[in-house]
Design a protein that fits this description.
Layout lengths: L1 E3 L8 E7 L2 E7 L12 H4 L15 E4 L3 E4 L2 H19 L4 E5 L5 H15 L4 E3 L6 H11 L8 H4 L4 E5 L3 H4 L1 H13 L4 E5 L12 E3 L6 H14 L5 H7 E2 L1 H12 L2 H8 L3 H13 L3 E5 L1 H4 L4 H15 L8 E4 L6 H6 L16 H11 L12 H10 L4 E5 L3 H4 L3 H10 L2 E6 L12 E4 L8 E4 L4 E5 L12 H11 L11 H13 L23 H5 L4 E2 L24 E2 L18 E6 L15 H4 L6 E4 L1 H7 L6 E5 L4 E8 L7 E5 L32 E7 L4 E7 L16 E8 L4 E7 L6 H9 L6 E7 L4 E8 L2 E9 L9 H5 L8 H9 L12 E3 L4 E2 H9 L5 H8 L9 H22 L3
Parallel strand pairs: 6-7, 6-14, 8-9, 8-12, 9-10, 11-20, 12-13, 14-15, 15-16, 21-25, 22-24
Antiparallel strand pairs: 1-2, 2-3, 4-5, 4-16, 17-18, 18-19, 21-26, 22-25, 23-24, 23-26, 27-29, 27-32, 28-29, 30-31, 31-32, 33-34
Helix pairs in contact: 2-20, 3-20, 3-21, 4-14, 8-10, 8-11, 8-14, 17-19, 28-30
């Protein structure tokens, strides 16, 4: 079955094979234009994430009268409908809200948006896409009059210059990164500039890295705008024919930026590097500026987007092959959600909620009894309204806001206060689901039928190849059945996703033009509005606009924009500091983001042993100088605190991050770690236009988190001691859970010593009456080892030491859990945690696709593999998804440096 990946906004095509209701193979689709058969490790590992363990399979109702109980769909939906109807009658349409997700399919999104805005008559539907790309949307609307991304992936292969701003493309959009890397290999003259405070894996292909201070992007691009104008690079004919706002934008840029030296000082970079970047942009007719979360997630994210777009409008480098500003979308269907009005300030079909003519057009098409009259609450303010008691009923779909939103502890408190919380989910136990009064089982990836739209405006099909498990249903079905119970039967009488897609496509073309009573927008699916069911099922990936069959085109190729006068706007933007400045109490800047092999809050990727190999734990990255200054050490634990919350994390010391900055990954939640919900630390300040939070700049401090011992546990099944409410009883002060191939691993730390280590260890592992208990201890050294073996197979093992470096490597004892029967020497090895014979430890995993460890790679380098290609030929690393190639290059550089150092020590010329 040909389908589409459920992860990032690249939108890779997949070929899925299933047998007996289970996925057996996932491969890249060689015919899909987004990836041409390429696949990252997350996509390749999808079969490991599709098991039913932990799935929500039946509706669940939680009431004070009856507690928690499984119910049927009729009872669950009747209960939810009653709650909505009561709130609407007693408190009005502003008292109810939906919080949805870029994980939904377009058809799901469309139905939820229609119900809220056209039938409830309010706009309180917002999405977790608010957290990642709403600043890009706002910037597009200000500049173009419509949310249009004017670049395609093939433009990256045509460009002369690619500028990656606030985007660790190598880790967050790995297949796109590989396309850029391949283009650079084929055309070495292609220049790549990376603008990022951190030296990320993406920098490995850069010709120039600008590690600007966080929050200085507007100054950087205002300086570029001024420099380009002063050096005669402006396209005066294009500006005169197709734009307005030049004089105001230039005046502000010149006044704020001043000299090259002033911009360099403000941004914290060298003047010569800045001059080189400006000169590169000036001479590159085919220039693409691709940006992502580092730009968007800011209290001035919209201004940053417009500062970038201004430079492309000034030079006319937009609407042409190989040129333009390019928003790299984070989620698989964030753009599909934008198409149907999934944000609280939008209407469907790229129509504007603040325009009466647009509202009338949508209401007429829907034939709805009402239409929302003003924008609804954006994500952060929506949960503030829940906390304040203004929202009486909240429905959360396919997202985990208790982990992902800023000031997340307040979000958790808000949900605890809400009279009715409904959650439709795939996973039964999430931080958010635990607070729901009603849990509704939703269909997951591989079970759903519909469409998604990727970063380049390409619509692709997600097709089902697995049966619906239990009583799970598609989200569009759940919303539609609720609407029917509330009296809106005819408007929501959908029987499949195909019918919804046709309605969505017809609305995109409805009164779309320049005539009386019409509203022009580039978003137009007219060519798809009359598909037969068979054509929908066989729909090939297609980019909009496609107003009629055979009439697809690039939106701005003719220089026509969606503003009433048909012109684009250069927007005057002033540089502003982030909302919260560092001070003596919180002197460091906390930056948050993704790691290579995990996704969002790990409810899917956390199931995969392969994906846990690269980055197994939540960590804080800190510069070596700062680690010394604040007394934290590599491999130890540290508490990172802000005015909003705190987390305890493993310390990673690295010169890749600038001084006085910290980086933390966002993925871990209450099910996978004791104290690593990063959303709880992030300040809730938002962009005044887009409402996007400032995830990249929160004042913080760091201090050692002292413990008496460290350890890890291996167990064949989940341990009750690590349930969220049981950890304190087990005497642990920190833990994190890691999925292995044949066992679970728990990294742990504690204070004090129990009076009986043996009894404590057996209680922790849940040892029963059956089996054999082995243990060894060295009280003088503070070491303890234990193993539980039943029927000659390991059931659990435990390793404790006073320092993390005194613990054995994890890979070897974990591998013994795959054995059907342990030999005598293996029993001893399990207890020791180290092999008594056989191969040595391979080290931390670098290549997750083939399980190749760092020690193995370094051994091959020492034996003569002196290139990425040679390593690939010998070990296979880097030959599948390519995500590990930047790390392979770094290891090669490190090993060469060590070799040269040793030669110099020996006096060798």
């Amino acid at each position: 079955m040909r389908t589409t990946c459920p992860y990032c906004g690249v939108g890779c095509g997949l070929v899925a094979e299933a047998r007996d209701g289970q996925a057996v193979r996932i491969a890249g689709d060689p015919e899909h234009p987004a990836n041409r058969g390429r696949l990252c490790v997350k996509g390749a590992a999808l079969p490991e994430t599709l098991g039913l363990e932990g799935r929500l399979l039946h509706p669940i109702l939680r009431t004070r009268t009856h507690g928690e109980r499984r119910v049927g769909w009729d009872e669950a939906l009747d209960f939810v409908a009653k709650g909505f109807l009561h709130a609407l009658a007693e408190h009005g349409p502003e008292s109810v809200a939906f919080y949805v997700s870029g994980q939904l399919l377009t058809e799901d999104y469309y139905v939820a948006n229609k119900l809220m805005k056209g039938y409830f008559g309010a706009a309180n539907i917002d999405t977790n896409s608010r957290l990642c790309m709403s600043s890009a949307v706002a910037g597009h609307v200000r500049a173009f009059g419509e949310d249009v991304v004017p670049v395609a992936y093939e433009d990256l292969e045509r460009a002369e210059l690619i500028v990656l701003v606030g985007s660790n493309t190598a880790w967050c959009h790995p297949v796109l990164f590989q396309r850029i890397a391949a283009a650079k290999r084929e055309r070495p003259e292609l220049q790549v500039v990376v603008i990022d405070p951190r030296r990320t894996a993406t920098v490995e292909i850069a010709d120039l890295h600008l590690p600007i201070r966080p929050g200085t992007d507007v100054m950087l691009f205002n300086g570029l705008l001024s420099w380009l104008h002063q050096h005669g690079v402006a396209d005066t004919a294009f500006l005169a024919a197709h734009t307005t706002g030049l004089e105001a934008a230039l005046a502000v840029a010149e006044q704020s930026a001043g000299s090259l030296a002033h911009v360099a000082r403000h941004c914290g970079i060298g003047e010569e590097s800045l001059r080189r970047f400006y000169a590169l942009f000036a001479r590159s007719e085919k220039a693409i500026t691709a940006f992502s979360m580092g730009v968007n997630q800011s209290t001035r994210g919209t201004d940053k987007v417009n500062a970038i777009i201004n430079c492309h409008l000034l030079t006319g480098r937009i609407g042409k092959p190989g040129a333009g500003p390019f928003s790299l979308t984070g989620q698989p269907n964030a753009m599909g959600g934008r198409e149907v009005g999934g944000l609280a300030n939008q209407l469907a079909a790229h129509l504007r909620l603040d325009d009466p003519a647009h509202r009338a057009l949508v209401q007429t098409f829907w034939n709805s009894p009402r239409i929302a009259q003003r924008p609804g609450l954006k994500a952060v303010e929506l949960f503030e309204a829940v906390h304040a008691g203004r929202i009486k009923v909240l429905w959360v779909m396919a997202t985990n806001p208790v982990v992902s939103l800023p000031d997340a502890d307040r979000v958790r408190a808000a949900l605890a206060r809400c009279p009715l919380v409904v959650v439709s989910e795939v996973v039964r136990d999430t931080d958010t689901a635990r607070l729901a009064h009603v849990l509704l089982p939703a269909a997951g990836w591989g079970e759903r039928d519909g469409t998604v739209t990727n970063s380049e405006r390409r619509i692709s099909r997600q097709r089902p190849f697995l049966p619906l498990p239990g009583e799970a249903r598609p989200d569009w079905w759940i919303v539609s059945r609720l609407a029917q119970r509330m009296g809106f039967d005819s408007a929501f009488a959908y029987s499949n996703a195909y019918e919804i897609f046709l309605e969505h496509a017809r609305l995109s073309a409805y009164r779309n033009g320049h005539g009386p009573g019409e509203v022009f927008r580039h978003f137009n699916l007219g060519a798809l509005a009359a598909l037969t069911r068979d054509q929908y099922d066989r729909l090939e990936p297609i980019r909009w606009p496609c107003p009629a069959v055979g009439q697809g085109h690039e939106p701005f190729a003719a220089g026509h924009y969606a503003h009433a006068d048909g012109r684009a706007r250069l927007v005057a933007v002033w540089p502003h500091a982030p909302a919260h400045a560092t001070d003596d109490d919180y002197p460091l800047v906390l930056n948050s983001g993704r790691v290579r092999d995990q996704w969002h809050t790990m409810t899917r990727t956390g199931k995969s042993p392969r994906l846990a190999q690269h980055t197994a734990e939540p960590y804080v990255e800190i510069h070596p100088h700062d680690a010394l200054l604040w007394g934290v050490r590599a491999g130890g634990l540290a508490r990172v605190s802000t005015r909003w919350g705190a987390a305890v994390l493993r310390v990673a010391v690295s010169a890749d991050i600038a001084r006085r900055q910290l980086f933390v990954p966002i993925h871990w939640n209450g099910e996978t770690a004791s104290d690593a919900r990063i959303g709880a630390l992030v300040n809730p300040a938002v962009d005044p236009i887009s409402g996007e939070p400032e995830f990249k700049h929160t004042p913080a401090r760091i201090e050692p988190f002292f413990v008496d011992w460290y350890g890890f546990v291996l167990a064949r099944r989940p341990l009750a001691a690590f349930a969220p409410r049981a950890v304190a009883d087990a005497g642990l002060v920190w833990w994190t859970k890691v999925q292995g191939e044949d066992c679970l691993r728990y990294e742990i730390a504690g204070r004090g010593a129990p009076p009986d280590w043996s009894g404590w260890a057996q209680a922790l592992l849940g040892v029963g009456l059956e089996g054999e208990w082995l243990e060894v201890s060295d009280a003088a050294e503070g070491l303890y080892r234990a193993a539980w073996i039943e029927d000659a197979r390991p059931r659990g093992s435990l390793y404790l030491a006073p320092r993390p470096e005194d613990l054995p490597p994890r890979a070897f004892p974990a591998a013994l859990f795959a054995q059907q029967r342990l030999a005598e020497h293996e029993r001893i090895a399990l207890l020791a945690g180290r092999p008594t014979e056989g191969p040595a430890d391979a080290g931390p995993i670098v290549c997750a696709c083939f399980g190749v460890g760092r020690k193995t790679i370094l051994g091959a380098v020492r034996e003569g593999c002196n290139s990425v290609e040679a390593l690939g030929a010998r070990l296979q690393c880097g030959t599948n998804c390519g995500s590990c190639i930047p790390e392979l290059k770094a290891l090669l550089v490190t090993q060469r440096a060590l070799h040269l150092s040793s030669l110099a020590t020996e006096g060798t010329p």
